[in-house]
Design a protein that fits this description.
By secondary structure, this protein is an alpha+beta fold. The protein has one domain: Aspartate Aminotransferase, domain 1. Strands 1-2-3-4-6-5 form a 6-stranded antiparallel beta sheet.
């Protein structure tokens, strides 16, 4: 069992562990997400800052050389072309700390995910009414 594993109580708690420059980037990413998804709730999930709205919306996390952004595979696929300069995987993308953060792109991806989750939630509601 891992006894030294840090358990984060909040996004503030998570961000506080990083150097000031990284904290500033994380706070800005958080603010962009909050503005793009004003109804989303904050939580820690998978030990990462997470926003949820009818289920998980996006996660983000800091690493030694990059910020990981996790908008689910659909969020990556929908912006595949714009995300092509960045290293990524099926449901994630890495934004290097030494390069400018693409905050406007993050905002558009979050708005896309909001629309996707709202549509999915409305679909479930319609099924329940029938």
């Amino acid at each position: 069992m891992e006894e030294n594993k840090v358990v984060y109580e909040s996004i503030d708690n998570y961000i506080a562990q990083f150097p000031p420059k990284v904290q500033e980037i994380l706070q800005t990413v958080r603010k962009v997400i909050q503005e793009s998804a004003p109804d989303a709730k904050e939580k820690i999930s998978y030990q990462m800052p997470t926003f949820e709205l009818y289920g998980n919306l996006v996660h983000f996390a800091a690493y030694p050389n990059h910020i990981g952004f996790y908008p689910t595979p659909s969020g990556i696929t929908a912006f595949k072309e714009e995300l092509s300069p960045y290293k990524g995987a099926k449901g994630s993308v890495q934004f290097l700390l030494e390069k400018p953060m693409p905050y406007e792109l993050i905002s558009r991806i979050v708005k896309f995910r909001v629309a996707e989750n709202v549509e999915k939630a409305e679909g479930k509601l319609k099924k329940k009414k029938h």
